[in-house]
Amino acid sequence: MKARNSLIIILVLLISVAFGQEGKESVFYSNRGKDTKWFTYKSNNQALYNIITNEAFRLLDKRSEKISKLKTQEDWQTYRQDLKKKMYASLDKFEKTPLYPKITGKIIKDTYSIEKVFFESHPEFYVTGCLFLPQKRQKPAPCIIYCSGHTEIGFRSDTYQTVILNLVEKGFIVFAFDPIGQGERWQYLNTETGKSNVGGATKEHTYAGVQTLITGSSLSDYFIWDGVRTVDYLLTRKEVDPERIGITGRSGGGTQSAMIAAYDERIYAAAPECYITNFKRLLQSIGPQDAEQNPLNAIKLRFDHPDFLHLRAPKPSLIITTTHDFFSQQGARETYAEVQKSYSAFNEPDNIQMVEDLGSHESTPGNREALYAFFQKHLKNPGDNTDKKVEVYKPEELWVTPTGQLQSSIKGKTVFDLNREYFTRKEISTEQLKVKAQKLSGVVFDRKLTAAVYTGKFFTDDVVVEKYFIENDNNDFALPVYKIMNENSNKDKCLVWLHPEGKAEVLKSKMLPSFLDEGFTIISADMPGTGELHDKEFTGDGFVKGVPFNYTFGAHLAGKTIPGIWAESIDLLMQYVESETNNTCAYIENEMNLSFLYYAAFKNPFTKIVFLNPYNSVKKLIITEYYDPEIAYHIVPGSLPWYDVNELTSTLPADSYKEIQFIEGNKRMEEVAYEKVFKYLGE
User: How far apart are CA 200 and CA 670, in angstroms?
Assistant: First the structure.
């Protein structure tokens, strides 16, 4: 009967744990009727995002202070030179190689023709697009580059074709090209289905973008470079006036047009649509988007959306917005107000304009007509700006390749291939390793424990679990902690046990009774983003196989990282542990070792550490096309050129840790592994 009751208790416990400790197992349970959580900590599950945005807002405030001091043309010139040098340094690795353009087909209409084109923006890295040539045009004629938003068929969507064909009807040459991971440029193509193996456009971007982050680059670099080479291609065409090149695009195309125009000075007029806001309002509302929209460390480098336009001043720019876009309209208004300062300093205040129409994240007739009028004025191609109904093409009619996909037609390289080719290992001394690791991870051990708040206990058979949450002097979040004991536990013999999915996993482990019987008092905690600090409502278009890379993108924007944030949380936990005992071992499971090292490399109060199933190298994340997103989530962006995991482990005293591996599912190997764990910790 006792065994049966124990089983029931354990099942109830595990059910509660699976749902994030919402009941009495929660450290925030208040035992107050229906209000089951401490009022102050009801939103504590947003801890990870709050840590990220607090730092981002602090940096953005510093940027605003700097902007407020810029008055003269000379001030703005110096500001722009410094910013561009920092922001675009990673593009220096790219070289302009032969384009080898090829026309694969033509469509001839009464008033225009279409040439289907591909060229190489990098050797064997192909860009597909269509060049629309009006029959009646100036010679040479102004040309507009059209960038597509996040649609799987690229510029072939009805909405984008409407803009393109209207511009062509008004006498503009238009070159519309496929962004990476869209149209005919799937990076992870399933040749049998013709679809992506990782998901739609945003997942294609995120999956490739995470690999570039690991090597210290951004997917935005590749997007920008495609734009640069597009301009290079257009300048080979005698039909195009090199002094009258414009660029536009909506949504993700707005991102591209803003980034490319800010970098490439040959683009004279730019009109990003349904994208421009500012980072503060973006982070407050929908959060960071997929990979290419988050240049590495942008906010840390004091970059914000207005800088896309400051870098262009005083060249003509039009911000196209809608009142109810998910890209905050308030942010767009604030950006427009700020950018007027630089344009005024350059004596061209009328060259920066903003149009706002009633609508959501969409293309409206009013905005399209404002777009046409803008290009007609600034690219000196006057005419009627009426938005006209056009006859659009079926997507396959605008295919450049026979199959509608490069990878099943002419193959070529992918971002995965280029990322490996551009990756270079840099030399670093042992003395410099810790300095570099701390800088790249963004670790700052600045939180001080103010209280370990006891909130009760619960029992599972003969195990007692005391509940605490740890407060700190930053008052930004509370760290949930379990203190696990049985009658054999010794308070002076502590084991800090950390699992990448949180403290509840410890209670599920078959190892738990043995550790307790060995006399250990076990301390475990939820890292921000896990367990009781997991935000079930957090969403974004950077999720891959359930892994929330939107956090990764937001963190690196602000110079923070997931491992760095977790290392800071471990530091807070250890302040509590060290107040209880100075005899502490650590038991670190799976991916958790990747973050734990960013604590232990700088602070190591442990007598012994066991790494269970650690990762000795993460280089396979960039040499394996279909890598494990779960592991990648725990990597510091930009670290791999400088050091691998085994080198970070080497900063620990050789006799202070043991690495133990076993293959999950192999019962005998598992038993042997656990025997090694106990033997080492018990010595």
Answer: 38
How many CA atoms lie less than 13 Å away from 507 in the CB half-sphere? Answer: 33
Alpha-carbon distance of 290 to 251, in angstroms, equals 12
Residue for token pair 């005083």:
314
Q: Is 58-393+411-422 assigned to CATH 3.40.50.1820?
A: yes
CB atoms within 10 A of CB 377: 15
Summarize the confidence of residues 155-184 as an average pLDDT.
98
At 111, the amino acid letter reads T
- The pTM for the full model equals 0.94
State the pLDDT at residue 51: 98
For the chain, the domains span: 2-42+439-682, 58-393+411-422
Hey, which CATH number is domain 2-42+439-682, 3.40.50, 3.40.1000, 3.30.2320, 2.60.120?
3.40.50
Sequence-separated (6 or more) residues with CB below 8 Å from residue 255: 223, 249, 272, 275, 289, 292, 293
Average of per-residue pLDDT across 360-367: 98
Q: How far is CA 628 from CA 219, 634, 651, 662, in A?
A: 18, 11, 26, 18
Largest CA distance in the chain: 93
Residues 683 and 665: their CA atoms lie apart, in Å, by 28
Distance (Å, whole) CA 661 – CA 610: 10
Residue 243: CA atoms inside 13 Å, Cβ hemisphere, count?
A: 5
> Are both 2-42+439-682 and 58-393+411-422 of the same fold?
yes
The number of C-alpha atoms within 13 Å of 633 and in the hemisphere containing its C-beta is: 21
CA distances from 372 to 174, 226, 284 (A): 12, 24, 32
The model's pLDDT over 487-523, given as tens digits with 9 standing for 90+, comes to 999 888 999 999 999 999 999 998 899 999 999 999 9
Three-state DSSP class for 413?
coil
The SS3 assignment for 666 reads coil
260: which 2 tokens? 């490319």
User: Where is 637: in which H helix or E strand?
Assistant: none
Question: Could you give the CA distance from residue 91 to residue 288 in angstroms, rounded to a whole number?
Answer: 22
What contacts 147, CB < 8 A, 6 or more positions away? 177, 179, 227, 247, 248, 249, 252, 253, 254, 256, 257, 260
Q: What backbone torsions phi and psi does residue 569 show, to the nearest 5 degrees? A: -70, -35
Task: Give 576's contacts (C-beta < 8 A, 6+ positions apart).
Answer: 449, 452, 468, 470, 481, 523
Contacts of 373-376 spanning 24+ positions with Cβ under 8 A = 374/269, 374/271, 374/316, 374/318, 375/142, 375/144, 375/167, 375/172, 375/246, 375/248, 375/269, 375/271, 376/170
